[in-house]
Structure formats: structure tokens, C-alpha cells
């Protein structure tokens, strides 16, 4: 079956899920949340790029959904009675991907504000389930649609800035396309907008607005990911729980905290998912017998947290954590924001980052051949090439197996002499059995070479001293981990490797010496501040374990706040 035939089958099989007709009971439930409005032909209801836009339910008449592609309108859909317009952006608060307007001479619609819709999705199961499933499926269909534009990145093929924007939007599950400026399509766009190679990359928004050489913050604002935590007139935001880091532990904490009534704010420095989000396939996660990609797992978790009212801001890097007297005793300052986030409790779930490969020339090829995730996006550069995976843990094994499907050959570079010491047995068995995977024990990458992109590496055998040069399109670094804790104050005690101590390990800390209780299992050396997931000293570095820790930390939060007492 060709790729086109697979897409056609997918669209046919998912049509009923993506576009269900609402019944009378569902219409009646939504009626109480919105307001009816008469729409004339050509009247705009929602503009592309708009945020916090309402869900539109057609009572009578017909509407038109369209996008503007360089001055040419493309009609995407013509919803009629009992159809509703909306997708994942309504849950996440990000920007609308398309515009809506009236098509029939007169149409009657029900407009349900985004905030009220999110409440309904959490509180009205009969409405929430079909709507959320429809929103998710519509987003999945858009991501597969090669014609839909969404956000567009126009860049030269060797532009690291363009690839970084692509990576950021991909990991945040924003519908977008990376367009090569040297192709016929790219050249046509450059000519239309009078763009030169020196002016690239540019980001073209859904409404046609062009932003030259955008920063990640610019991209986040345009996509609607960077949500203002408060207004300029209100420089402080108060919440019950601040979660720093949206990896599996942080997302689990957000879902459980928000669903149990805690006013929850989540800060994420780049993209939700952490290391798990970059995994091509997680096969040992509970309830997924055939496995699930890390991106899909964490994206669903984030939607679940949004549904219960958790507030996310991305990218929002926490700069400092300080403490004051009073009910909201934890203060977080955030990069690029004047807002001070004050919280009753804090969960630190910043995770750990892969160590950098200590090889000559590595810096030159960051995002241009050196990668720290193995997803479909990186696979585009590896087709029919030899690629190298450095590391011996589960992430390295998953990367090797995934890339073996597209690469001609995968070489695993391992410092030690035994794969089973750090990799799950089911995975190590698959890696060793895969015919196009070669494992090099007692080896390390010592030099990287190329022009604008990585072309080859030198590999050293530490036992024999032999140096081998390998032509390669990509090196995937999956080695070790260093905790993201350098920004924390000295009051938060850490072990010799920088991981945060919790529970009995901090019972003798100054803040606990005169306390009337002992620290809870996930509580740090500062009362009311917790740690969960990979960043916590002694944690099991597995996705499922991080989810469990994030969920259990919420119980400790409730104990501190006296929620159920």
C-alpha cells in the first residue's frame, strides 16, 4: 500500500470520529453555555491567528472554513446544521489555524466561549468525550495533511535557526511546515514577498503575517503557546500549585492537581514531554500493549491537564525560586516576564538533560547532524544513510530501533561492554537481533567533521586504540543525564550529582529542625516544595515511574494544604 493509499484509508476511517453530528441532548447542554447569533454571508466569525476563540455550532444555514495561502483562499470545509467548528487549539488556548465565515445568505450559530467550553469538557461527560475525541482527531488529520499550511517556516536547507524553529513547533505539536527556500515552492514565496536569502529564515503566520528571523519567543507568541500569566496592571499571579517542568512527572501532577481542584500553573522551558517526549516508541508503559510514541503520550496528557483547567506557559524558563512569609510563600521569577508567580506549593519536575558528547567539532553541528531526540522529524534527515546512536540506555535502544526502519545502517557507540546492564531486556534483545544495527563496544566518538552539515565522525576504541572514520548523516546523543537544578537556591539540598534530595534524606535540613512534622516522601529541604521524576535523587529513571511520582507528589501537596482535613 502506497503512502497516498494509507492516508486515504486513514481519512476515511476517521471521518465519523472527527466530524460527529451532535444529538438533541448534547445541543441542549451546550445551549445553556453559549449565545445564538445570526451570521450573514461573508461575515467573519473567527480569524486565523485569533486566540481564545469560541466553539461555533451551526443551528441552521452553512459556514465556510478557509485559510489564506499567499493571497489565495483555500476552502477547507463547509459545515452545516449540527456540525461544530473547533479543534485542539480551543483546549490549549493557542491560535486558530483557520478562519470561519458565513456562506449561506443567513445562518444561525451557537457561540460557546472557550472558557465555558473547557468547563463543559471537564464537567459534562456526555458532551466532553465526543468533542475531545473530535478535536484530537481533527488535529491528527491536519498533521497528516500535506496541503494544509498552518504556520510556515521558510529557510535554506542548511539553516540551523530554521531547523530549531521546526523542532520547537514539532515538539509542541503545532501544525506547521518547513519549506526549503531553494525549491520551486520556496522560490515562489520569496518572489511574492520580495524575500532574499539574507533575510531568511522567516515565519509566515496563519493570517499571512511574516516575521523575519524570529526568536523562539516570537514563534511561541505567534503560535499562542506563550500565554501571559497576568496583565501589566497585575504583576503578581497567585496559585495553589506551581509546577516547574512538563515532563511525565510534571504532566501527571498537572492532571491530578487540576482535576482535584487546585489552581495549577505549569512552566515549561521548551516543550512538554521531557526526555520521554523525544522517544519514538515507549513499549513498556501501562495500558499500551503495542506501545505509544513519547510525543503522543505526553501530548494527550497535556490536553487532559488543559481540560481540567491547568494553565501552561511555553517557553517559560524559571530563573529563580525564593521564599517569603505568608500563604503564598514560594516566589518564581520567569525569563522574559515581569510577572512574579506566587504559589502555596511548588513541584520541581525539571527532569534531566542528556550529556553533551565530548567530541571535537560537536558545537558546529548542533541541529545540523547532532540530535538529542529520535522522532519522525529527525528521521527525515536519515533516510537511506548511516547514522550513529551514542548511549546504552532505553532511550538509545528505542532511537536505534526507530531509525533502523529508515536508515541504511545504525551504529550504536557504547563505552561499556554489556548492553543489558542499562537497557531493558526486551529492548536489548531486539537491538542485538536487528540486522542493520551494529554495536561497537568500548568506543566513543572523538571528532565530528563536515561543512554546513555533519558528514563523518571519528570513533575511538578505548581498548585497542583503533580509530575508525565513519561517514554519517546524524549522531544521536543519548548518554547519561544531568539534572536541571543549577537555577535552584541553596535552600533546596541536592546530592553530589545535583539531583534533589527528598523525604528522610532532608529530615535534618535547617528548615525541618524545629518543624512539628517530618517531610513527606516527595518533599524537599524546604517545606511546601516537592520534587518528582528524574530530577529527584533516588528516582527510577523510567517514564512510568515519573508519572507515578508526579501523581503521588499531589497527595503530599494535599497533605500540606489540608485539602481534605
Gist of the model:
This protein has 15 helices and 29 strands.
Describe this structure in words.
This protein is of the alpha/beta class. It has four domains: 142 residues, Sandwich (Jelly Rolls); 73 residues, Glutaredoxin; 198 residues, 3-Layer(bba) Sandwich (FAD/NAD(P)-binding domain), CATH 3.50.50; 116 residues, FAD/NAD(P)-binding domain, CATH 3.50.50.60. The chain contains 15 helices and 29 strands. A hairpin with a 6-residue loop joins β16 and β17.
Number of helices: 15
Low-confidence stretches: none
CATH class descriptor of the largest domain: Alpha Beta
Overall geometry: globular
pLDDT averaged over residues:
92
Helix percentage range: 25-40%
Secondary-structure class: alpha/beta
Query: What distance separates the N and C termini?
Result: 60 Å
* CATH architecture annotation name of the largest domain: 3-Layer(bba) Sandwich
Features of the shown structure:
single chain; 565 residues; alpha/beta; FAD/NAD(P)-binding domain; 15 helices; 29 strands; 25% strand
SSE order and pairing:
Elements: H1 3-18, H2 24-31, E1 35-40, E2 44-46, E3 55-60, E4 63-69, E5 72-77, E6 84-85, H3 88-92, E7 99-102, E8 106-112, H4 114-123, H5 125-144, E9 151-155, H6 160-171, E10 176-180, H7 184-193, E11 202-204, E12 210-212, H8 216-223, E13 236-244, H9 248-259, E14 264-267, H10 274-277, H11 294-307, E15 311-313, E16 318-323, E17 330-334, E18 340-348, E19 352-353, E20 370-371, H12 376-379, E21 386-390, H13 394-403, E22 409-413, H14 425-433, E23 437-440, E24 443-450, E25 454-461, E26 467-471, E27 474-477, E28 482-483, E29 529-531, H15 543-561
Helix pairs in contact: 1-5, 4-5, 6-8, 9-11, 9-15, 13-14
